[in-house]
Design a protein that fits this description.
This protein has helices at about 35-45, 55-65, 100-115, 125-145, 145-160, 170-175, 180-195, 205-215, 265-280, 285-290, 320-335, 340-360, 360-375, 380-390, 395-400, and strands at about 1-5, 5-15, 20-30, 70-75, 80-90, 120, 120-125, 195-200, 240-245, 250-255, 295-305, 310-315, 405-414. With about 425 residues, the chain is α+β, with helices and mostly antiparallel strands.
């Protein structure tokens, strides 16, 4: 349902969950220039507003709404940066005195969006500076995580687009460069320019929701979004070895994957990744971790919206060359069809089981509606299962042949 141009309301009626859920989703461009500002704005949204100007008063108001739970989350889809405001709360009929919780929740959200704690076109300094410090501390801690920091290094080496080279939360220098004015201005830009999707999920009065949402002063906007990014394959493998004082060494490999979300080989790609390294029965896990004992952990992951297939392994530095050789062998074996029908069946079963489990949550249900509208994903789980089951051995071999190593990064512990 269109509330304004570029602002859509999605009503998801269900009695499956014990609580109702509302998500306000802001979808904007993923750019290195604005990531930090958007994350800082997200933190302010979940901390204070003009009506509840301290974190204590803000949380007390949520507690008064029968313990409503509000949080913000940032994520990316291709070249789209997403900021979610999520709130879960009990249904009106479960209150003691028949209070209209849904109405009060939407009034509270309206205050968060349109009455932020700000003056002279900037956030209140004291609280903003605290949230900025918290974000910097969070990013500093993450930098000490060998897997996190090595993955960021891999992205920097793999992606041509600078915006895909940084974390969805930004990076320390980008956050340090922002202030209460720049973050507030970015939030105002989000309010007026981002595509906004409002999801109301649960058991509620449709008419009441529509009437209340129409009271939000949203303006028309036209926001084109680019969900799929694909860069050309380079016929050169980039190799980087970095030494650092960490106990565990980490091997990170980036493969060029030309199969995107809407390609006919997408489902074959899912099956390939499952038997290659994504599950405990996969070839990387059984051959390198269990049989050879070379890796503490090993896994493969695909991002079909950015063309990256990532293999990572935590290993001893003396096992680097042997581990790389065995990873190459597992991929080569799949390309040559050296895998059983048993592992294919097991992989398909795991994919289907995981898919069904993931969908059994409010947030996943909301995600399914969003993907259906903007990524044109078929929301029918039976259709998805049929596509997985139809993947043949020949399909897997064909997909494996398209996967090519692009970047080798090794974080060597000292």
């Amino acid at each position: 349902m269109k509330i304004a141009q570029g602002v859509n309301l999605h009503l998801i009626k269900t009695k499956q969950f014990k609580t109702n859920h509302i998500t306000f989703r802001f979808s904007g461009d993923l750019t290195k220039r604005t990531i930090a500002k958007r994350v800082l704005a997200a933190q302010m949204l979940a901390t204070v507003n003009a009506s509840y100007p301290t974190a204590r008063l803000f949380r007390q108001r949520l507690a008064a709404l029968y313990g409503a739970n509000l949080s913000t989350k940032v994520s990316t889809k291709g070249l789209v940066h997403i900021v979610d405001i999520d709130i879960s709360f009990i249904r009106d009929e479960l209150t003691f005195n028949g209070e209209e919780i849904l109405q009060n929740i939407l009034i509270f959200l309206k205050e968060c969006l349109f009455s932020p704690l700000a003056a002279t076109a900037q956030y209140q300094h004291k609280i903003f500076d605290l949230e900025k410090k918290n974000l910097i501390n969070y990013l500093e801690v993450d930098k000490e995580d060998s897997f996190y920091s090595s993955h960021l290094a891999l992205k920097t080496l793999f992606f041509d687009n600078p915006s895909l080279q940084v974390s969805k939360y930004g990076q320390v220098d980008l956050v340090q460069a922002e202030n209460s004015y720049t973050a507030y201005q970015e939030f105002q830009h989000m309010l007026s320019q981002d595509q906004i999707d409002i999801f109301v999920l649960g058991d509620f009065d449709d008419y009441k929701v529509v009437r209340l949402i129409h009271q939000f002063p949203f303006e028309n906007r036209l926001k084109p979004l680019n969900f799929i990014y694909q860069q050309d394959y380079k016929n050169i493998i980039t190799e980087v070895i970095e030494k650092r004082s960490v106990n565990q060494s980490v091997l990170q490999l980036a493969y060029h994957n030309p199969i995107s979300y809407h390609d006919e080989d997408y489902f074959a790609l899912l099956v390939f990744n499952g038997l290659f390294g994504n599950f405990p029965h996969s070839k990387l896990f059984t051959e390198i971790r269990e049989k050879e004992g070379l890796a503490y952990t090993i896994n493969s992951q695909i991002n079909s919206l950015t063309g990256l297939l990532n293999v990572y392994a935590g290993i001893d530095k003396k096992n680097r060359d042997k581990t790389l050789k065995l990873i190459n062998k597992q991929l080569s074996d799949i390309k040559l069809g050296r895998f059983s029908s048993t592992i294919v069946k097991q992989t398909k079963k795991m994919l289907i089981t995981n898919r069904q489990a993931i969908l059994d949550s409010p947030k996943a249900t909301i995600e399914k509606v969003y993907n259906s509208k903007y990524l044109k994903e078929n929301p029918d789980i039976d259709n998805w299962v049929n596509h997985i089951n139809q993947v043949s051995k020949e399909d897997i071999i064909r997909v494996a042949g398209k996967i090519k190593l692009q970047v080798f990064y090794f974080l060597e512990g000292e």
